[in-house]
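Form 7-S
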Amino acid sequence: MKRKFLKNFNRIIPAKCKCASWLEHWKKFSRQPVAICCAELCAGTATAAAFGQRRTDNVLVVVPVCEKHARVKSDRFPMYTGVKAVPVDMRVTCGAAKPESQGSEVRSQKKTE
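Output:
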């Protein structure tokens, strides 16, 4: 079974965007409901946003997490499949005209441990 990972999780904190918060930014551009943390095997309420890079192109992205996982700093972060990772680049999100196609899913990667 393939698992999704975000690399360099929470190592880079971007400047503030035009949205009320990074979690609001994620909600707006992912067009997904926020309920639970995107961290695999976590059932905590998503109340914060976390940052990482997509494995395929190293684009800086934001995902919804609980307070516990918002503090995690690791090289690889396992995520639930189906959670969209939204680019933080305001030129393609907050500064762009339409949010319809801005969310993009983090590519799956086989577990190598």
